[in-house]
Every structure is written in C-alpha cells, then in structure tokens.
Amino acid sequence: MTQTAVQRFYRFHAYVYDFTRWMILHGRARAVAMLRLRPDSAVLEIGCGTGLNFRHVLQYLDPSCGRLTGLDFSADMLERARRRVARHDWRCVELVQDDASTFSRDQRYDAILFAYSLTMIPDWPGALRRAREHLRPGGRVAVLDFGMFSGWGPLKPVMRGWLKLNHVQTHESYVEEMRKVFGNVRVQHWLGGYNFTAISENAGAGPGH
Ligand SMILES: C[S@@+](CC[C@H](N)C(=O)[O-])C[C@H]1O[C@@H](n2cnc3c(N)ncnc32)[C@H](O)[C@@H]1O
User: What is the pLDDT at residue 94?
Assistant: First the structure.
C-alpha cells in the first residue's frame, strides 16, 4: 500500500512524539470530560496516535464493561500505542489500523474523540460523516484541535505556516461542518485561538438503531 505524506511523516515522529508534543498539544482532559463518559461507555478515538489520551478516557470507564477503541492509519504510531496499552495492561483497549475517512465498524459508540487529528485528515468532512455513522443516538463527538490563531497578531501567519509544514490545516471550517453533519455544535476557543473544543450530539437515530 502506498503511504500518504502523513503516514510517512509519522514514521519518524512516532519515535519522538511523546517527548515533544506535551509542549504544544493541550486540553486533553477538558475535551474528554466534555464527552460525559459513563463506566460502560464505548469510546472511539479517531487518529489516536500513540495513545496519549487513553488514560484520560480510561479514568471514566469500568474496565469490565467500558471499551475504548483507538483507530489510526499510521502503523508506527499504533505500535507506540500498543506498547503503552501493554505496559499498563489496559485490557479494554483495542487498536485498529484504518483510515478515518473510509473506515467501517460493526459497532456503534457512545462517544467519539478527535484530538489534534481532524486538521491532519485530507478528507476531514468524510471523517466527520464516518463518525456520525458510528455514533449511537444521544452519543457525543468531541473535536480538540488547533484554531485559527485570531488573537495572535503578527504571530498568526507564523504559527499557521509552521503547522502547515507539519501537515496541519488551520483554514478549514471545521465547526461549520460539524453543525452541518450533526445538526448542532458547541464550540469554545482557547488561548486567543490557539486551540478549540467543539462538541456535537447525535440527535437522530443512527444506522442499526
Ligand atoms: C497529531 S496526532 C494526534 C494523536 C493523538 N490523538 C493525540 O492527541 O496525541 C494525529 C494522528 O492522526 C492520525 N491520522 C491522520 N490522518 C489520518 C487518517 N486519514 N486516518 C487515520 N488516522 C489519521 C495520524 O497518524 C496521527 O497519529
């Protein structure tokens, strides 16, 4: 299979990810809290990377009935996630290698998380639609990602340009698309537009329900 530019990017970055990203990727616990998880929730993280959000999700789950699926298309990032899961003996975590824009699972989820992944997915509207298809009625999707740096003055183009070099697109209408796909969205912007959290609920009956 031909690797995409992002998969190639993470062949190297997988090794340094956990040591470097704490400086720039914030707001994980807050985004997970917005999912309102229960002990028996079934959770899907799309673009889970090395699994840095897993502990935030798992603190809400009862390992005997809750379930967390981490999906990513990078084998290198998933290998790091697999080691993390083994190290902590997290038996209710399952890892899946698949593309966010095209995946199809038999299961439906109570909550879906995109943490700093949506802005890296070329067909991100497709990924939101896949999420919608896999969300149970009443389920929630949370997106945590980089914003447009609107309050950053002259640093705005610098930050956005630097992110673009790292395959992160900050100019798309992510929140508007969530409103279109899910029919509702609540958004909060943080640190002058550095990042945002957006929450949508699946108000309708999904397939299989
Ligand atoms: C910045 S990392 C975020 C990882 C993790 N969610 C976190 O918060 O640390 C973005 C992740 O999205 C994954 N990704 C990007 N495009 C994807 C796609 N089309 N399908 C599945 N995963 C994708 C990358 O492989 C990478 O692991």
Answer: 98
